[in-house]
Amino acid sequence: MKHRKFLLKTCVLLFLFVCASVAPSVYAQDGPPESQKFGIGLKLMAGDGLTAVGVNARFWTESRLGFEVGYATDSEGAGDFKARLHIIPVSALFTLAHVNTDSVYIRPYVGGGINITRFSTNIDDLLNQYFGTEVSLSGTKVGGQGFAGAEFTFKSVPRLSFSGDVGVHRLYEDSGFAAGVHIHYYLK
C-alpha cells in the first residue's frame, strides 16, 4: 500500500516537472478559445476512501489564472452507512501552458484550495439490537487539496471540454490521493 502511494506521488511530481519544463517551449501566443471563459460541468472523483460524483463551475481569466467552485457527494456502506457532501468553496487554477494543435487545444494546469466535508453516519445494527435505538453521528471537517491535470478541447466542438486531474486531499488527520474526470460546457 505504501509503495503504491509513493509511486503515485512520484508520478504526480514528475507530471508537474514535465509540464513546468516544457511550458515555455509549447506556449501558444494566441491563448485559449474565446468561448472558454465560464463553464459548468460534471465531476467524477475516485481515490483513497473516496468515490464521488458532483457538479462544478470553472472560470478562466484573461491571464493564465482560473477558479473553480463545486460540490460532490459520495456514500460508502460496509456495515455502517456513511454519506458525505464535499463542498469546494473555491480552488485556484493556474495553467502552465496553452498548447494549440491542429485539432485539439490542451490546457495543463495545477491548482489547490480548501474543501469542506459534511458527513453523517448511522451506527450499525449491533447497537440497535442491544440498546433498541439507532444512533447517528454527523460532523463537518475542513481541509485542503492540491492537484494537477489537463483540459482538452476539440476544435470541432469549442464549447465542450474534457479534463482529468490527480491530486491529494487532506481533512484533519485523514489524507489521500484522488483522481478526477470532468466534462465542462462553456457558456461564454
Describe the overall structure:
- The chain is of the alpha+beta class and 188 residues long.
- It is 17% helix and 62% strand.
- The chain is built from two helices and nine strands.
- The chain has an eight-stranded antiparallel beta barrel.
- The N and C termini lie far apart (44 Å).
- Mean pLDDT is 76; it is low at 23-29.
CATH-derived topology: Porin
Mean pLDDT level = 76
Q: How much of the residues is beta strand, in percent?
A: over 45%
| Number of distinct beta strands | 9
Structural class: alpha+beta
Rg, Å, rounded: 19 Å
Residue share in helices? Answer: 10-25%
Q: Name the overall outline.
A: elongated
Q: How many angstroms separate the termini? A: 44 Å
Low-confidence region ranges: 23-29
CATH architectural designation: Beta Barrel
What would you call the quaternary organization? single chain
Number of domains: 1
Q: How many individual helices?
A: 2
Question: Mind summarizing the main beta sheet?
Answer: 8 strands, antiparallel, barrel
- Spatial strand arrangement across the major sheet: 1-2-3-4-6-7-8-9
- The CATH first-level class comes to Mainly Beta
Order of helices and strands: HEEEEEEHEEE
